[in-house]
Structure formats: C-alpha cells, structure tokens
C-alpha cells in the first residue's frame, strides 16, 4: 500500500499545535510568576520556555505555514467544485469542443448546487445538514457539514476572484487556513469521541470544544471582522 503524505494536514497541525504550546507555556509562566524566570535546577519551566521558539520556526515558520501552505498550496483542489475546473483546464489543449462544453456545463451545475445548499444551510442554521450519527453529538456533525460547505464555497470564490494574487493576500489566506484547521480539529475531536465509546463524562468537554471552534470559524468568515493572529 502506498504511503500517504497529507501535506496540508501536516502543515495545519504543525502550526496549530506549536502555537498552542507557546500559549500554554506563556500562561504557565504568568501563573508561576518570578519563580519561572529564575534559572536553576528546580525551575522546570524555563528550559521549555527557551526552546519554544525553535518549534515555532523550525520545519517551516508558522507564519509561512499558515499563510502560504495550509490554504494557498492546493487545499481547494479537494473541493467538489474546483476539481472539475482543473480537469476542464487540462482538456483545453487537445480536447474536443463537445468535451469542453460538457465539462463547463457540469462545473456550472456543481457551483449552482453548492451555492444553493450553502445558502439553505445558512438560513436553517444547519438543521437539515447531513450527519452520520443520531445521538447527542448529531448537532455538531450538522454544524460541521454546514460550515464545511460554506468554507468550500468561500474558498472557490476567493480563488475565482483573486487567482494567482491569492499568494500576496496573506492575511486572507491565513484566515482561510484557520477555518480549515478549525474544521479539521473539530472533526478529529468528534471522531475520537466515537472511537473511545462515547464516554458520557466527556460530552460537556466536547460541547465546549465544538462551541470554541465554531465561534472561531464564524469570526473568520465575517467579511469585516478584524484580522486575528494565529489561534491556538
């Protein structure tokens, strides 16, 4: 079996986990106060604080990983409406007029269906979005499906309007990377909850994590929202 190389997932996990580590270490120093800055054998925080910048900058600085790799380097080629466009470009040379027309018509149909579905999910709050489960976490699966569709739609229009200029719009690509990472992390949390047997005591924690990720997604999707730094 051929080994998988998920470059986009590896990038988003790298920048989100190392930024989370930096936030936690900074919070720990705030709590410990003066003891945390006095280097010595009993200070168990200082060495971690000193090495944290290494994780942020090595194997790709986080700011570049976020703005140039996670979203801008091909993530949209996995959306249902962008793949037909790429196939259509490949048929321009050597393809018949009939094939080009069929490909174009199919891409337009997919875009129309995708826009309609995203609009209806937004109006209904994701009430009718698909969910693979029928238990207490179904609402989060529906929200995940709703915002995944919204992300794909916004991503398609972003590329359609900006094209190659997207590489220079690093604040915008950074916000899209944050949305993608929040969607992925929420899906990972829900999967772990299922894999561990849906432990009842974990449900409030899952709810809190889901609310945090969905709030961040909504903030990044707002057209006039302030540009926030990397989230942890």
Cα-atom radius of gyration: 21 Å
Order of helices and strands: HHHHHHHH
Question: Which structural category do the helix and sheet elements fall into?
Answer: mainly alpha
The largest sheet, given as strand count, sense and whether it forms a barrel, is: none
Strand portion: under 5%
Assign a percent range to the helix content: 55-70%
What is the terminal-to-terminal distance?
A: 34 Å
Mean pLDDT: 79
Work out the helix count: 8
Low-pLDDT residue intervals, each spanning 5 or more residues: 83-94
CA-based shape: globular
Task: Explain how this protein is built.
The chain has 232 residues and is mainly alpha-helical. It is built from eight helices and no strands. It has helices at 7-32, 46-57, 62-70, 82-90, 97-124, 138-162, 170-195, 203-221. Helix 1 (7-32) packs antiparallel against helix 2, helix 1 (7-32) crosses helix 7 and helix 6 runs antiparallel to helix 7 (170-195). The longest helix has 28 residues, at 97-124. The model is unreliable at 83-94 (pLDDT under 50).
Ordered list of secondary-structure elements with their pairings:
Layout: H1 7-32, H2 46-57, H3 62-70, H4 82-90, H5 97-124, H6 138-162, H7 170-195, H8 203-221
Helix pairs in contact: 1-2, 1-3, 1-7, 3-7, 4-5, 5-6, 6-7, 6-8, 7-8
């Amino acid at each position: 079996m051929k080994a998988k190389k998920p470059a986009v997932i590896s990038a988003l996990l790298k920048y989100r986990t190392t930024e989370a580590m930096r936030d936690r270490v900074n919070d720990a120093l705030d709590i410990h106060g003066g003891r945390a800055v006095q280097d010595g054998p009993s200070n168990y925080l200082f060495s971690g604080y000193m090495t944290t910048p290494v994780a942020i900058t090595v194997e790709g600085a986080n700011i570049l990983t976020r703005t140039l790799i996670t979203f801008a380097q091909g993530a949209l080629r996995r959306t249902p409406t962008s793949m037909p466009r790429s196939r259509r470009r490949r048929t321009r040379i050597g393809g018949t007029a009939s094939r080009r027309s069929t490909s174009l018509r199919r891409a337009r149909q997919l875009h129309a269906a995708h826009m309609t579905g995203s609009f209806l999910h937004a109006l209904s709050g994701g009430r009718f979005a698909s969910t693979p489960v029928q238990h207490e976490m179904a609402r989060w699966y529906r929200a995940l499906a709703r915002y995944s569709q919204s992300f794909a739609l916004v991503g398609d229009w972003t590329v359609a309007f900006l094209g190659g200029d997207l590489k220079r719009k690093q604040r915008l690509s950074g916000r899209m990377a944050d949305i993608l990472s929040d969607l992925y992390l929420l899906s990972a949390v829900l999967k772990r909850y299922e894999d561990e047997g849906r432990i009842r005591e974990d449900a409030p924690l899952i709810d809190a994590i889901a609310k945090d990720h969905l709030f961040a997604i909504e903030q990044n999707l707002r057209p006039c929202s302030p540009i926030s730094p990397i989230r942890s």
